């Protein structure tokens, strides 16, 4: 699994001119799932997300987590995070999981992250054409890949 995490002051996702999810202060996360991903990847990444100390404390230092801040999360499925551009100019998505594999893992990810966050994670719709808006706070943008834990 591959993530792009952006600390935001606000974010939303719109599908067919209807806002599906909206958050205030927290994380807007893009999630890419590949065929080999498992529950172990979900556990590692959701723990990492909840433990990231990228929010300012009372001294202005990045010492607090999303849990400390009682922040929100907007999670968007994003198969293009597994694009390979090694050959030519047209990206290949062969590493991205097909929907029959990706959807159950995506739903488990949302459920596990909601439990750890202690509030419901907002989402888009898997596979839909989505318009994502956000105000990146900082900017702070972090990438994580469960296959590169070292």
From TrEMBL:
RNA-binding among keywords: yes
Subcellular location: Cytoplasm
Record CDD domains: Dtyr_deacylase
Main location per the UniProt record: cytoplasm
InterPro entries registered for this protein in UniProt: Daa-tRNA_deacyls_DTD (IPR003732), DTD-like_sf (IPR023509)
One GO CC term on file: cytoplasm
Keywords: Cytoplasm, Hydrolase, RNA-binding, tRNA-binding
Entry GO MF terms: D-tyrosyl-tRNA(Tyr) deacylase activity; Gly-tRNA(Ala) deacylase activity; Ser(Gly)-tRNA(Ala) hydrolase activity; tRNA binding
GO BP terms: D-amino acid catabolic process
Domains: entry comment: A Gly-cisPro motif from one monomer fits into the active site of the other monomer to allow specific chiral rejection of L-amino acids.
Role: An aminoacyl-tRNA editing enzyme that deacylates mischarged D-aminoacyl-tRNAs. Also deacylates mischarged glycyl-tRNA(Ala), protecting cells against glycine mischarging by AlaRS. Acts via tRNA-based rather than protein-based catalysis; rejects L-amino acids rather than detecting D-amino acids in the active site. By recycling D-aminoacyl-tRNA to D-amino acids and free tRNA molecules, this enzyme counteracts the toxicity associated with the formation of D-aminoacyl-tRNA entities in vivo and helps enforce protein L-homochirality.
Official protein name in the record: D-aminoacyl-tRNA deacylase
Biological source species: Leeuwenhoekiella aestuarii
Primary gene name: dtd
């Amino acid at each position: 699994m591959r993530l792009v995490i952006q600390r935001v002051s606000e974010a939303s996702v719109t599908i067919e001119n209807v806002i599906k999810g909206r958050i205030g202060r927290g994380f807007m996360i893009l999630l890419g799932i590949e065929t080999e991903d498992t529950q172990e990847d979900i556990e590692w990444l959701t723990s990492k997300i909840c433990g990231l100390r990228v929010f300012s404390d009372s001294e202005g230092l990045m010492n607090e987590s999303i849990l400390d801040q009682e922040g929100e999360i907007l999670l968007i499925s994003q198969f293009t995070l597994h694009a390979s551009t090694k050959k030519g100019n047209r990206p290949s998505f062969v590493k991205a999981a097909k929907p029959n594999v990706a959807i159950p893992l995506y739903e488990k990810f949302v459920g596990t992250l909601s439990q750890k966050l202690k509030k419901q994670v907002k989402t888009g719709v898997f596979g839909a054409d989505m318009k994502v808006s956000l105000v990146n706070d900082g900017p702070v943008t972090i990438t994580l890949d469960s296959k590169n834990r070292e």
